[in-house]
């Protein structure tokens, strides 16, 4: 399954599960602007004796945070939920899609995330922004990447 380049920037879409785990209902976070998912494998030393003095490494754990900027709209239910999750240190089920989540052929990454950063940015043109960082966490929704049929 290919990871689409559309997971970054303006083409990607971010959703929050407002339903249950067994019957998800995804709410599109429409006030979300820039969005990126910087995937990176951590590495550990895998050097062996007699390896020709070459340090070798093997991938260990995948880092898959979601970094996104949103308009800080105080009446938006998704922004309220993200801020509440940040201050309560509770998980939210988020999904990143390369397009509309229900469309055929769209690639979707989803799991439980904790909001680890909620940084208010200075207002520009009268609009306040908030920068979020969400990282996968232990929970009931396993990390999955899937493509809609």
Level-1 CATH class name = Few Secondary Structures
Number of strands: 10
Mean pLDDT level: 86
> Judging from the principal axes of the Cα atoms, what is the shape?
globular
Q: State Rg.
A: 18 Å
SS-based class:
mainly beta
Q: Give the end-to-end Cα distance, rounded to a whole number of Å.
A: 12 Å
* Count of runs of 4 or more consecutive helical residues: 1
Structure characterization notes:
It is a single chain. The protein is mainly beta and 149 residues long. It has one domain: Factor Xa Inhibitor, CATH 4.10.410. Helices cover 8% and strands 48% of the residues. It has one helix at residues 77-88, and strands at 13-17, 26-28, 32-36, 40-45, 57-63, 66-71, 91-97, 107-124, 127-136, 144-147. The strands form two sheets. Strands 1, 2, 3, 6, 7, 8, 9 and 10 form an eight-stranded antiparallel beta sheet that branches. Strands 4-5 form a two-stranded antiparallel sheet. The longest helix is centred in the middle third of the chain and has 12 residues, at 77-88. The chain is globular. Mean pLDDT is 86; it is low at 1-6.
């Amino acid at each position: 399954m290919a990871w689409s380049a559309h997971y970054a920037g303006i083409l990607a879409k971010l959703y929050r599960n407002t339903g249950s785990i067994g019957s998800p209902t995804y709410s599109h976070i429409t006030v979300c602007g820039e969005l990126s998912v910087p995937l990176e494998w951590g590495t550990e030393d895998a050097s062996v004796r007699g390896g020709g003095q070459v340090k070798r490494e093997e991938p260990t754990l995948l880092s898959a945070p979601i970094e996104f900027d949103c308009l800080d709209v105080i009446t938006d239910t998704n922004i309220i939920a993200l801020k509440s999750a940040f201050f309560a240190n509770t998980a939210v089920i988020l999904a990143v899609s390369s397009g509309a989540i229900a469309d055929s052929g769209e690639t979707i990454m989803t799991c439980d995330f904790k909001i680890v950063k909620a940084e208010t940015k200075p207002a520009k043109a009268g609009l306040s922004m908030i920068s979020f960082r969400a990282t996968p966490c232990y929970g009931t929704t396993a990390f999955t990447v899937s493509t809609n049929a």
